[in-house]
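Retro notes - structure team

What went well: the batch runner handled both jobs without manual restarts.
What didn't: labels got mixed up in the shared folder, which is why I'm recording both outputs here explicitly, each with its sequence directly above its tokens.

Job 1
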Amino acid sequence: MATRIGIAGITGRMGQLLTEEARAAGGELVGGVGRSGAAKPAASPVPSGVRLFADIAALAAACDVVVDFTNAATAKPYAAAMADSGKAWVLGTSGLSEADEAAVAGAARRIPVVYASNFSAGVNLVLALAERMGAALPADSYDAEIMEMHHRQKVDAPSGTAIGMGRAVAKGRGVVLADVMESGRHGHTGARKTGAIGFAALRGGQVVGEHTLIFASGTEHIALIHRAFDRRAFATGAVRAALWVVGQKPGLYSMMDVLGMT
């Protein structure tokens, strides 16, 4: 029996790609809700044959797994609704606060959740390398800086993927990112702090996503770069996660688990 997939954010750009990828992967596309979380008129055409549900609870009740690419404002209410539904949840929304992530973790105590800053297989390989590099290159000798660029419509900065890179480096170094993160430097900031992980966010045009992790010492620079040219890479990975997570035990999973890299 085909996995029944619902898509939160189905009327957005990612929603349309997820619709195509879910069908291509052999899943049964049940329908979805718009980015606002309800069956309101779409800013872009609703994919052919797609049913719009009244809310996330109704969608979850009709499917086996919900793939969610909406916005940070829906994180808490969606976490509660998904936990009550007992269905699996694949979450790719970026810009979540600590409180939002705590709500997601709470839901994961009752249902299986795959939460990732990026669902691209390539990005997740980069994150694995970033952690190893963070462990191998001492913070007192190698300064870590992360630069990212996205399209002009992106509303959160730094990007979720950039933060994921920072978390990977911090994990490799045995520290918490929040304790060493420096973002948006401006004015007379003083000398760079030893052990800091710096972030720079660029916005312009229609760049899908570019991320560069730099380790800079007094004798060498090492750069790890990922460039996305098509959002379909994210949709393909998210559908792969959706097919994997159904039947898993309650818990908070990453794309690394989906790819068998843990």
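Job 2
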Amino acid sequence: MRFVKMHGAGNDYVYVNGFEERVADPAALAQVVSDRHFGIGSDGLILILPPEADGEVRMRMFNADGSESEMCGNGVRCVAKFARDRGLAKSDTVRVETMAGLREIRLFRKNGCIVRGSVVMGRPILDPAEIPIRVPGLEGGRAVDVPITVGGQKLRTTCVSMGNPHAVFYVNDAATWPLETMGPKIERHKFFPERINVHIVQVVSPGEVIARTWERGSGITLACGTGASAMCVAGVLSGRTGRKLLAHLPGGDLEMAWPADDAPVTLIGPVEEVFTGEWPDR
């Protein structure tokens, strides 16, 4: 099986061209290729498939534990680059079908090479039942600064869905906050029936944050595009940041904008192809 290793701000995946390759069990394959010691090493597996509706390609994303996710903001930019570089898309604006809906990616070049992408991520979902988050008393409201106790610690979180669920926590120092131990506990907390992506955010200014991520099904990752979009929304809802936001993540910077409450979020960030290879048929 031929594959391509790509990343967006360090959020790395193994990409397989489903126009040419057949993957019988993508959940199992995701687990073995993602292993950073015995596999290729990645945050998961992304299949690039023929479209079923209005897209030029369709994306399926599997986390490192084999679970399937609805969307990935960094991954979908790489899918667009893959499709354009290999002739599956005919222009530098690429339509990609995802489980969270159709996403349009505009690609940007430097010296003729695609190096960045802008994604219209869609409107945030704020109804607690649709995120989903189950907390008594939130019915019909918004999950802003919701109290939550995890590992004996009393915290507050603002929750947003960008087609997949996110919980944003504001802290004084993102670098030292114990994400390694708290991330898995929050991911599987009883408030979150479908588990959740966890983001630790340190506010630098109304337009700038430092953040770290624990992704549902993958653990700590260097960046998360849907998560960064959720950070932008959470900052507006909680009054901590503005509608344009620069997020400094361990793998690089992402830029987001949420122009109005009824508008979609836009995400801009890097895309890079690292290497290609062949995975043995086992």
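One thing worth noting from job 2: The mean pLDDT is 97.
We'll revisit the folder naming next retro.
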